Amino acid sequence: MNLARLTELAAATVTATQRQLPPAIRPLALAVPVHYEAAPHPSVLAEGFEPDILGLFSGNPHGTELAHDSPAPPEILLYLENLWDLAEGDPAVFREETRLTYLHELGHYLGWDEDELAARGLD
């Protein structure tokens, strides 16, 4: 499947996921831009992330923006070719993995650590 189609599927999945979020969280989620990339940029890999990373949250978590000298705007990156490879070419699996990865990265924006994400089934 080509990148344009993967982007369409992923964006539709993220939009549907956002609609299902609890009302208290939905506005926060909608405020965080989601970027769809084919694969991680070499600079991400240089930071020590594995080449098969599915997604990444960057920026300052919600509520901590003023605690930093140089606040970085939050963003969520989804790596579509890695998600597609994990799904082994199955669109339904791709959508589910995209949903889970988006929620995982959104959890980081909300300030949840890996243990808290795992407790919510988002590891």
CATH class term: Alpha Beta
SSE string, helices as H and strands as E: HHEHEEHHH
Q: Quick one: how many beta strands? A: 3
Q: What is the approximate shape?
A: globular
Give a quick account of the main beta sheet: strands, pairing sense, barrel closure. 3 strands, mixed
Strand order within the widest beta sheet? 1-3-2
Decide which structural class fits the backbone. mainly alpha
**In the residues, how many domains can be counted?**
1
Oligomeric status of the shown chains? single chain
Distance between the termini: 26 Å
The parts where pLDDT drops under 50 for at least 5 residues are none
Strand content: 5-15%
The name of the CATH topology is Zincin-like
Range of helix content: 40-55%
Query: Residue-averaged pLDDT, rounded?
Result: 90
- Radius of gyration (CA) equals 14 Å
Task: Explain how this protein is built.
By secondary structure, this protein is mainly alpha-helical. The protein has one domain (3-119): Zincin-like (2-Layer Sandwich), CATH 3.30.2010.20. The chain contains 6 helices and 3 strands, in the order ααβαββααα. It has a 3-stranded mixed beta sheet. It is globular, with a radius of gyration of 14 Å. The protein starts with a helix and ends with a helix.
Please describe the topology of this protein.
Elements: H1 3-19, H2 26-30, E1 34-37, H3 42-46, E2 55-58, E3 75-79, H4 80-86, H5 91-109, H6 114-119
Parallel strand pairs: 1-3
Antiparallel strand pairs: 2-3
